Amino acid sequence: RLATALEETRQLWLADMDPQILGFCSHLHLPLMAVLLRRADYCDWLLPLQLVYGLAVHGHFHSSGNVFADGVIQKWKYVEPSRILRSGLLCDDPTFKRMQQERPSEDDATLWQAALDEVDNHTMAGPIDGHTSATDFLVSRRFPVHQVSKTRPCDDYTASRLNDCQSFSRRMTLPTIDLITHMYNSLSDKWSGDLDLHIWSADHQGAYRQ
Length: 210
Fold this sequence. Notes:
The chain is of the alpha+beta class. The chain has 8 helices and 4 strands, in the order αααααβααβββα.
């Protein structure tokens, strides 16, 4: 009977409640809870009302460390490719020379075969002789990443600074075909006649880059 008598009050309280609080206590009969807590002489019997109308904070609030520190400003880390690209003989590149001085490892055959497989899949060109002369090139070493079922080759684009030549203003996620199609249509409409835009599928299973 008491719950029924307080139902109108319950609906008024729900209407005044903050949406975030309402999300986890809308199923509670807060007026009934307040009455029962009061009758039981519970010291915090005003809690149901505080959930609805909030509560005052008294005294001084001290924070330590960086609880309310200013947001970290990320420095724009972008390097022009012309600053790190090299020209000349491939074998004169410092990374190439260091790799030549390293001892052969058990993973060399696996990495070599993985590279040949990528050549067969037309995702890599080669093999290229070290005494080849080239312009605007960058040498990145490849190392193995041992997983449960296989060994994956990883191109260390961080050490070679190739990653420093990439930049973006915000993270973009296109998890579905519909979103990819929508992006394609939007870009085509905006730059009609001037945009040579192609979309292709990549080998995500074989991809492993750092």
